[in-house]
Specification:
50% of the residues lie in helices and 0% in strands. The chain has 157 residues and is an all-alpha fold.
Length: 157
Amino acid sequence: MINAGRRATDAFTLRRCQILLASACHQTAGAIAKQLQCSDQAVRNVIHTFNREGLAVLQAGSSIPKRLPHTAFPPAAQEQLRVLIRRSPRVFGKQQSQWSLDLLAEVCFTQGITTRQVSGEAVRATLARMGIVWKRAKQWIRSPDPAYTPKKSDATG
């Protein structure tokens, strides 16, 4: 079966048969990986799966994750987050006028939108799932010069 798999048109089956045959010839994972231009860990994973499941290793499994990633924001909390980002941080007693992801995470926890403190990355991922692209706010330089505006308009036309 493994020798027959070397003639397979499916690249997945072909690669796994090559790994198993090289392993049967007592080649190391590093040597097999170098020969097939893949990682040592990929070779080890195939060999371990073969030892555990047999020839089932030659069949490609589902590409769908076995479990869905945990989200800190259930649908109701996502709507609350959508409303929150449209408000100023100053409404919540913060000194800045623009949201950062970490500040959003902190306010979500203090306002009870999330049941635990989440990271800014969790907020960003949730916003992305909601179709909202997060971009860092630009900080504009303000000049203390009272003649800054006229000078700027003269320089830029």
